[in-house]
Amino acid sequence: MSLPDFRDTGMSKKLLNKLVPELEQAREKMGRKLRFMEVCGTHTVAISKSGVRSLLAPYVDLISGPGCPVCVTDQSDIDHMIAFAGSEDVIVTTFGDMMKVPGSTSNLFQERANGADVRVVYSASESVDIAIKHPDKRVVFLGVGFETTSPGVALAILWAEKQKIGNFFVYSANKLTPPAVNVLLQDPDHRIDGFLLPGNVSVVVGREGWMDVEKANMPAVIGGFEPVDLLSSLYLLTEEMSKGRRQVVNNYKRVVKEEGNTKAAALLGEVFSPCEMAWRGIGAFPESGLRIHHRYERYDAALQIPVDKPVTKLPRGCQCGEIIKGKATPFECKLFGRACTPQNPIGPCMVSGEGSCSTFYTYERHQHKQQPLSV
Ligand code: SF4
């Protein structure tokens, strides 16, 4: 099948006609709507944009988990970057999405307006170029992202090492997705019936990377991002649940291998080591972050550039933490669409184009009244 086939309306309708009775049956058996969680911002957007969420709303709550790297970056990490930006000889580089994420006292966009040298880049390697052009400055790249983005950061560090660049640093807030899913599963009140697992992360970790989900007896399907991918994955997930099968199904075989991308995994293993890391809304938990390995610690901004950070204060009234855990929807936040909009975001879920609040604001705000998740 080619890409247009995965966007085919006829095929999507056929799948929908198969899926709805299956969901109806499952809803009847459970005595309530189902709850499936996706842990990928790209899925959040695809589900909203395609209309799949609203089409299936009578049968299933499709809830978003910790899948947007901007949203899960802990506020203390944002504060740390703002503190770097306050150093005279530091150039801060970051992805555009991070510029407007509110810290406790400011954001990087405001810091730039106040005179700090903060630059938007498209890759970590671009930051190495900036370091080469400015040998009198220290360039700190804010590393955010999951298994798909982190190999690029690892490559930039290796490239800087090869070229003996001494003024390039990374502040790593890079994270690993499977441990976050496991932490959600350990919560006795998790209210999740199945996981739609991210196809992009799975390209790196493979189906094998999700074995803890299988051990936790939770139905899960690895899915792609086109309408046919989404509907067929949700069909398989419902089927797994109804038939009591508990294996991770790979429904994205055109790109995801059983063992994943071993080269990318080896690259991550060379440059990073797993560490405890704080996730917004979830807190700190072991082996969920990527710390720069001691072999490359001269590139670790957290170690090499001491700064004073302000006391971290979370935005009042913002429910990003509950949304990230799948315990609330953006519509339940009193600030949604009123005090908090993409133009004036109060929490990170409204900043990134893949954040739940921003996605709901863009695609669904006119379709829904304020309503909580079904119970
Ligand atoms: S609408 Fe804004 S304030 Fe409310 S949870 Fe989302 S980001 Fe936070």
UniProtKB/TrEMBL annotation:
Matches recorded under InterPro entries: Hyd_form_HypD, HypD_1, HypD_2_sf
Keywords in alphabetical order: Iron, Metal-binding
Pfam families for the chain: HypD (PF01924)
One GO MF term attached to the UniProt entry: iron ion binding
Gene Ontology BP term (one): protein maturation
Family: Belongs to the HypD family.
This protein's name: Hydrogenase formation protein HypD
Species name: Paenibacillus thalictri
Gene assigned in the entry: hypD
